[in-house]
From TrEMBL, chains A, B:
PROSITE patterns: HTH_TETR_2. Residues 4-64 form the HTH tetR-type domain. PANTHER family: HTH-TYPE TRANSCRIPTIONAL REGULATOR RUTR, MYCOFACTOCIN BIOSYNTHESIS TRANSCRIPTIONAL REGULATOR MFTR-RELATED. Gene3D superfamilies: Homeodomain-like, Tetracycline Repressor, domain 2. Residues 27-46 bind DNA. SUPFAM superfamilies: Homeodomain-like, Tetracyclin repressor-like, C-terminal domain. This is AcrR family transcriptional regulator. GO terms for molecular function: DNA-binding transcription factor activity; transcription cis-regulatory region binding. It comes from Nonomuraea endophytica. Keywords: DNA-binding, Transcription, Transcription regulation.
Amino acid sequence: MSRADTRMKVFGAAVALIAEQGYSATTVDAIAERAGVAKGTVFYNFGSKEGLFGALLEHSIGKLAEALSEAAVGSTALERLDAVVLGQLRFFEQYGPFARVLLAEMWRTAWQEAVAQLRARALGVYAEVLRQAADSGEVRADLDVETAATAIFGMVLTVSIERRVMHPERLLEETHATLVELLHGRVR
Amino acid sequence: MSRADTRMKVFGAAVALIAEQGYSATTVDAIAERAGVAKGTVFYNFGSKEGLFGALLEHSIGKLAEALSEAAVGSTALERLDAVVLGQLRFFEQYGPFARVLLAEMWRTAWQEAVAQLRARALGVYAEVLRQAADSGEVRADLDVETAATAIFGMVLTVSIERRVMHPERLLEETHATLVELLHGRVR
DNA sequence: CCTCTTGAACTGACCAGTCAGTACAAATTT
DNA sequence: AAATTTGTACTGACTGGTCAGTTCAAGAGG
C-alpha cells in the first residue's frame, strides 16, 4: 500500500460523500471512515479539508481534460465536436459523483484556481474544436466560441446528472443522439 | 412592515449567502444579520433553517416557472423555444444568486419535493414547447423532449452563471444570440 | 390585546485540526 | 549479522470553537 494508493482511496470516499451532501456538510471523519483510514491520515496527506478538496479538483479536472482531448477525433471539426460530447458523457458515466461536485462547486470563488484550470483545459477542448469549425466555415465565423463552449459543457454536465438520477438504465448512445440532434439543429 | 416583507428580506439575504458559501456553510445568524432582522424572527417565520430553505426554493421556483410560462410566446413552436431561452436568461439576470443555488442544490435528494416542482413546472415549459415543435414537424417527431428540455435548461443556467462571473458587462442579447445559434444548428 | 418582532443568553451536538505515539522498513553503525 | 538510528506513513483520542435551535422577557403597532 503506497501513499498514492491511500490518496486515491481518500479521493474516492471524498467525491462520493461531497456529491451526496455538499462540501461543507461532509466531515473529515466521514471521509476517513468511508475510505477505511484514520482521520489523522487525511490530514497527514492533504494538510487540511480544503487542501484535500483542492487536490481532488486538480486530479479530477486533469482526468477530465485528458478524456476530452483524447475523444476529439474525426475528419471534420463538427464530427470532433460530437465526439467530444460523447467523450464527456462517457467520462461522467464513469466518474458520476464528480459531475455533481463540479456542478455544485464550479463557480465558488474559493476554488478559482481549479476553475481556471477547468476553463483552460476542459472547456478549452470545446473552444478549440469550435474555433476550427468556425475557421473551416462549418459554423458561422463570428460565433462566440467561449460562451458556446461553456454552454455545451454545461448542457452535457446537466444531462449526465439527470441521466444518473432519472434514467440510469438508458443507453448512453440514446442520450448522445438527443444532444447531437439538438446541436445539429432543427429539421426544417 | 408586513410579515410578507420580513419573509422577503430574509429570502434575499439567504439566497445571497447560500449562493456565495453553499447551504450548510451559511449560518442562520449571518442570514438574520444580512436581512437586518433578529435571529428569533427567522425561527418565528420559518421554524428551522431547513424550513427557510424549503420555502425559499418553493417561492423562487414558482417565480421562475411563471417567468418561463409568460415568455413562451411566438407564432411557431421554435420561436417560442427561443423566447423561453431569452426568458430564462432574463430571469437569472434579475435573480442571479438563485441560479447558483439552483445549480448546486438541484439534484440533492434532500429537496426532492422542490426538485419535482422544478421539473414539473419550469422544465415542463421547455418540454411542452418542444412537444409542440415535434407535433408540428419543426423538429424530429421522435426527439426525447424530457432530456432535451433538461439539456437546454442546464445550458442556459450554466451560461447565466458564467456571464455573471466572467462577462457581466456583455449584453444579454448577444448571449441569447449565441445560444439560439447553437440550437438553430450549423450553417451548412 | 393579540400578532409580530427583538436580542440576548443558553445548551448540546458536532467538527476541523492537533499531537503524542505506533509500526515498520531502509540505512547506518558496531 | 546484530544493534541502532532515521524517515515515512499512519493512528485515534482529545481540544477548542462553532452553530442550530430554544427560551424568554420586553417591546412595537395595528
